[in-house]
Amino acid sequence: MRIVKWIFIISIFSAVGLLFHYTLPQRDVVRVTGTEVIRSDFNGWNRLFYAQQDSGNAVATTRDVRLINTVYPDGSVMVFRNEDTGWFNWPPYFKTNSSDVSAHAENLQSTAEAPKWVSIKHYGWRFSPWSIYPNATRLDAVDDPDATFFPLFNTLFFIFISLIMLGLFRLAQRFKRRRIDPVLDDMGETWDSVEAGGTRIGNAIRGMFKKLGGR
């Protein structure tokens, strides 16, 4: 049972960690090499890893998806999708300007001979066998390909989550002291009384048999 317990705990923490890693924003410094639009069919289960059609358009199982092609300073490539997230979808980035992001990406295109470095803010994963792309939410021009950024939002988010967890822990402790502990104490006292009564009855019965045996 101990192994099952630890497997369950590790599975829960792994699932939460993967959810945070997929959802929380990240920043990469890249060079934009081009943009394109592909026609995608969302009848498959990988639909979970896409956002939605542009805000204001009807829901469809087949639609165009904007892509941003990029290259990292080390030469490796990455393809980002550029989709609206809207107001009622997960994750709640409230992105409704994918057309503007696409225009900004086209304006920031550059070549290896004259690179323009871009900080691209995104969430999600890239997994080519399932045609999954991270979703770009913002692009900013930067001067240094080695530029780093302090994860302010992620830091504040984890502080907020930690405060909530601490508050829930304190509430659980208070509830336990006020509601559960008195009940357990009463049950313990009742059990002690029953145990003491049983001992007295047992002693009385043994005494009675001793008297009967002595006659």
UniProtKB/TrEMBL annotation:
Keywords, sorted A to Z: Membrane, Transmembrane, Transmembrane helix
Superkingdom per UniProt: Bacteria
Keyword Transmembrane: yes
Transmembrane segments: 7-24, 149-169
A Pfam family annotated for this UniProt entry: DUF1523
Name recorded for this polypeptide: DUF1523 domain-containing protein
Lineage of the organism: Bacteria, Pseudomonadati, Pseudomonadota, Alphaproteobacteria, Rhodobacterales
